[in-house]
Amino acid sequence: MPDRGLTHLDPLGRARMVDVTPKDPTHRRAVARGRVHMKSETTSLVARGAINKGDVLAVARVAGIQAAKRTPELIPLCHPLLVGSVLVNFRIEDDYIEVEAHVETVDRTGVEMEALTACSVACLTIYDMCKSSDRGMVIGDITLWEKTGGRSGTYRRTDGLDDDLGF
Known about the structure:
Radius of gyration: 18 Å
Number of strands: 5
Oligomer: single chain
Structural class: alpha+beta
């Protein structure tokens, strides 16, 4: 793939939205993952549905879906597009909750930012729902794991990080 430079800058170095109108709509998909590290007592409370604010994962799932749909309102140069599908899943381990967000569309630009935003907001929602039990939580490892479609083709993370979430 040739180097196209900084596509979000015009010839004078000013920010601009990339022109995607010449592109053909194609099926595009992105997967992002992140973790909320916490005390094992907190993960246990979440797993048992015993957090006093309510069903943590149900609220975080809806927050992630909503965030994916609102990404262009949050990321200034992100294109508004028709989000066809958003799926947010969780895996509870002893001292963290793993979040995985899948986003799909048929459009002229990808959904990597929508997947990353969905994952991030789901993680933030878990923190918000659990903060009365554990203020020391750490949100991290938010990463694009896969993207398909578009001119650049398929990308899959291959750096040896844990890739088996069981989703």
